[in-house]
TrEMBL record:
Organism the protein comes from: Candidatus Abyssobacteria bacterium SURF_17
Highest taxon of the lineage: Bacteria
Signal peptide: 1-23
Domain CzcB-like C-terminal circularly permuted SH3-like: 270-330
Protein name as catalogued: HlyD family efflux transporter periplasmic adaptor subunit
Amino acid sequence: MKYRFSFLIGLLILPGIALNAQAQDDHDHDKPAVATSPAQSVDQHDDHEDHDEHGNEEAHDEYAGHDEGESDLVVLTEAEIAEFGVVLDTAGPGRIRSEIVVPGEIAVNGDRIAHIFPRFTGVVKQVFKRIGDRVRTGDVLAVVESNEGLTPYNVTALMDGTVIDKEINVGEVHQGDRPAFIIADLDTVWVNLSIYQMHLAEVQTGQTAAITADHGINHVNGLISYVSPVVDEHTRTSIARVVLANPTGKWRPGLLIEGRIATDFYSAAVVVPKSAIFHMEDAEVVFVQTPDGFRSQPVTIGRTNHANAEIVSGLEAGQAYAAFGGFTIKAEMQKGSFGDGHAH
């Protein structure tokens, strides 16, 4: 009887134990996996970070190389270079001209002008020439009837030139108190340059003066042949004069001009025209031609004038560069930075 009672108790307890074991087993399966050791956990984390960092570095290097390559070079064919007006030159030594810039005016050559007066007072009978007419020595300009004896006589040209003024008309009595005609030889003209007091010590005869007019359309060089010994009391300037050949007549008296007087010269190892220099990304650059294309070369600029600049560093003698027309290369390079154009 005792054994039967124990057996019954065992039957009741065993299912509970089995259910509790199953529940514990299910609970254990629901828990996340745990590293077998701290070292194993750290190694796995480091491996993950190393993989991320390596991937980021590769992506950064790839992007950096792409960005740098996009706008460094502009490739142009020979035909495109000619089409875009790019003019190539070789870097080399030159001279920088130190100069002063002054205003000026074209004037009649005072040594080649004639004022024509009638010899006697009388009535003007005929006038043959007018302002602008070209005349030769001995040409009859007008006929005046003298008041003494009522005898007509000719008023003639005393030199070859152009009539630039006329103060005589048919029917009037000319008293001879003013020129009837003014004739000037305009094949040469004077360029009168106004020199301010601060520059008087720098200007002397024999110096070269570059004369420009009409916003640079007309340009010519001449030598200063005269410097006035006095200063004008009203303008406080002195006159430096250039005698200029004027065979076509384009340098008309009264024309306002600009003069650049060379006062000194400086020799430099590398000199380029200012048209070759461009400002890009806070630097002055020159576009240098390489076997692979044009690249922007940062340079350091020394002495300059209105036309040329000394290159202190960045461009070596013998290098080929774009002396003119570089704005086209700059535009292509800027387009290349956005993935367009000829830049590579």
